[in-house]
Design brief:
The complex is a heterodimer of chains A (136) and B (122). Chain A is α+β, with helices and mostly antiparallel strands and 136 residues long. Chain A contains four helices and three strands, in the order H-E-H-E-E-H-H. Chain A is elongated. Chain B has one domain: Methyltransferase, Cobalt-precorrin-4 Transmethylase, Domain 2. Chain B contains four helices and six strands. In chain B, the strands form two sheets. Chain B has a four-stranded mixed sheet with strand order 1-2-4-3. In chain B, a hairpin with a 2-residue loop joins strand 5 and strand 6. Chain B is globular, with a radius of gyration of 15 Å. The chains are: A alpha+beta (136), B alpha+beta (122). Chains A and B meet through helix 4 of A and helix 3 and strand 3 of B.
C-alpha cells in the first residue's frame, strides 16, 4: 500500500525522479500525532525491512529529526531511486507540559518532553526552511 | 473577559517581517486575541511559530493561529482580475488572521461562512 502511495505521489508531482542523478531528500512534515513516523516506518519496513522511528499515542514522540540514508525503491521498469528519508518532529504552535500530564506522564517527564518538543519544532522549521530555500 | 485587538493592514504593511511578528507576539502575550487584516507570508508564519516556540515558558504556552482566506478557485475571471489589481494597488489585505494565546484560546474552527473560537475554562 505504501509502495503504491509513494509511486502515485511521485506521478502526481509530475516529474520523474528515477531519471535524476542528484540526491533527493524526502521529508515528512505535519502536525504532532499526524502519522508521520508511522508513514516513515511503513516506507522503511516495505523497502528496507526495518523501522526508523518510535511511535506513541502521546504527541511529540519524535523530538529530533531522524534521517534514514540510502532508501532505495524500484519502479515497474526496474529503475532505482535512492533517497534520504527525513522524519521530522510535529510542527505545533503551542506546547503545554500539562497536556502530557493528562496523558499519564509524571511531572518531571512531562516537563522534559515539553522542553524537547519545543526544540524539536524549531529544528523542524529550520530544516524545512533550508529545504524550501533550496527548492526555490 | 476576552479582549480582541484589531490590526488593520496599514498598521503592518510598512513593517519588516521581524517587526511584524514581534508586534503580533507582544499583543498575544498581553492575553489579547489578534484580528489582523490580511495574512502573513508563508515564511513569516514559519518564523512566527519558531519565535513562539523560543518564547514558551510556564506563563506563555504558545498560540492558536487561524487564517481565513477567500477561495480563489471558486472566483470567476472578473473577480480574480479585480482581486489581483487590488493586491497590486493596496497590498494583499484579503483574508483575516486570528492569533490568540493558547492559555485562553483552546481551538479555532473555521469554515467559509463563520469562525468558531473556543476558549478554555478557567
Amino acid at each position: 500500500m505504501v509502495k503504491s502511495f509513494l509511486l502515485n505521489l511521485l506521478k502526481k508531482l509530475a516529474f520523474n525522479p528515477f531519471s535524476r542523478k542528484s540526491h533527493i531528500k524526502l521529508g515528512v512534515y505535519g502536525p504532532p500525532n499526524g502519522g508521520k513516523s508511522t508513514l516513515a516506518n511503513r516506507i522503511c519496513e516495505d523497502w528496507l525491512g526495518e523501522t526508523m522511528s518510535s511511535v506513541s499515542h502521546i504527541p511529540h514522540e519524535t523530538r529530533e529529526i531522524i534521517i534514514k540514508e540510502q532508501v532505495t525503491i524500484k519502479n515497474k521498469k526496474g529503475k532505482e531511486l535512492t533517497f534520504s528519508l527525513v522524519d521530522t518532529p510535529g510542527i505545533a504552535t503551542k506546547i503545554d507540559y500539562e497536556d502530557f500530564l493528562k496523558r499519564g506522564m509524571n511531572k518531571e517527564d512531562a516537563k522534559k518532553r515539553a522542553k524537547e518538543a519545543t526544540k524539536g519544532v524549531i529544528d523542524s522549521i529550520e530544516f524545512y526552511e533550508v529545504l524550501f530555500k533550496f527548492i526555490k | 473577559m476576552v479582549t480582541f485587538q484589531f490590526i488593520p493592514y496599514q498598521d503592518i504593511e510598512n513593517l519588516s517581517s521581524a517587526k511584524r511578528i514581534n508586534k503580533l507576539i507582544n499583543i498575544v502575550k498581553e492575553n489579547k486575541i489578534v484580528l489582523m487584516e490580511g495574512r502573513l507570508e508563508k515564511e513569516e508564519e514559519a518564523d512566527l511559530i519558531e519565535i513562539t516556540m523560543e518564547e514558551i515558558s510556564h506563563k506563555f504556552k504558545g498560540i492558536e493561529l487561524s487564517v481565513i482566506y477567500p477561495d480563489r478557485s471558486k472566483q470567476d475571471f472578473f473577480h480574480k482580475i479585480k482581486g489581483g489589481f487590488t493586491s497590486v494597488l493596496l497590498g494583499n489585505r484579503e483574508g483575516m488572521t486570528i492569533i490568540g494565546p493558547a492559555s485562553i484560546v483552546k481551538k479555532i474552527e473555521k469554515n467559509p461562512n463563520k469562525i468558531e473560537l473556543f476558549t478554555r475554562d478557567k
